[in-house]
Amino acid sequence: MELCRATSFAWSHSISPSLHITQPFSMCESKRARVCCVSNDSASSQSQKANQMTVSVTGATGFIGRRLVQRLHADNHHIRVLTRSRSKAQLIFPDKDFPGVIIAEEPEWKDCIHGSNAVVNLAGFPISTRWSSEIKKEIKQSRIRVTSKVVDLINSSQDEDRPTVLVSATAVGYYGTSETQVFDEQSPSGNDYLAEVCREWEATALEVNKDVRLALIRIGVVLGKDGGALAKMVPLFMMFAGGPLGSGKQWFSWIHLDDLVNLIYEALSNPSYKGVINGTAPNPVRLAEMCEQLGNVMGRPSWLPVPDFALKAVLGEGASVVNFLISPYFLFLVFSLIKLL
């Protein structure tokens, strides 16, 4: 499955130099920006205040959410972290480093969302585990429950207190699996379990008030040095145990963490960002190529593939996700548990 991007965006990261994209990848009309310089510090300060947003974020303690909060805080926006665990959020966002950030547990979400300019919804139970009927139920319900709560709270707001934009995460799992097809935002949904999850996840977000601009970001494999897939892959390659999973022919539809955060950030303030957006880089690669490039950078071989039968033994039905989406913890989980078989 190869994903196509259909939104104008400048991508700053690449898998390899041969695949580096130096120009914005766009299938849409380019937007021009006019910059006016003023020498009056007071005018500049007033302009900054006028552009300040109040943003409520679910999933803020996760890999993507943490970086998004850091970016919003660095730009002096007002942030409301919507969490189920205040103590966990306080460890990640201590007041000395994030002054002014409000941390709210579920009973307080209503007061945070009412009066916010925007909401970013990133919450969901990890898919990176051996699937059982109970786990599959939690994967789906966790996403739908939080999204439904967020949508209900937005819809119950008075007009003057209602957020104007909801940026809600979904996933490239929407498209199902294929080694040959190219998918863009208009492509139909797949027929497997994760496609079903994504359809219901998105349908829940689409129930938001029609006056609220909705951006649904179908996120691919997120890469970053501080977590995500790379954090699990690098130690394996360092131990000369790196290599692709299964055939290695799977499309690795990836995005760098910073590019994803920039995409979400732009979606918050740019009114042209609405509807479905594939949160992937414009240059997907085969998983085998991804592993080869990582091995080259680290001076390690990519020589230890994990066969299909071993994936199924470790992950059960969850092995099907490897056909199109390598979740951040799958690589660590697979290589760790294979040794126990």
Automatic annotation (TrEMBL):
Chain segments annotated as coiled-coil in the UniProt record: none
Keyword check for Cell membrane: no
Domain NAD-dependent epimerase/dehydratase, chain residue ranges per copy: 56-272
InterPro entries the UniProt entry points to: Epimerase_deHydtase, NAD(P)-bd_dom_sf, SDR39U1
Transmembrane segments: 321-338
Keyword annotations: Membrane, Transmembrane, Transmembrane helix
Pfam family, one: Epimerase
Domain of life: Eukaryota
Protein name listed in UniProt: NAD-dependent epimerase/dehydratase domain-containing protein
Protein species of origin: Liquidambar formosana
Organism placement in taxonomy: Eukaryota, Viridiplantae, Streptophyta, Embryophyta, Tracheophyta
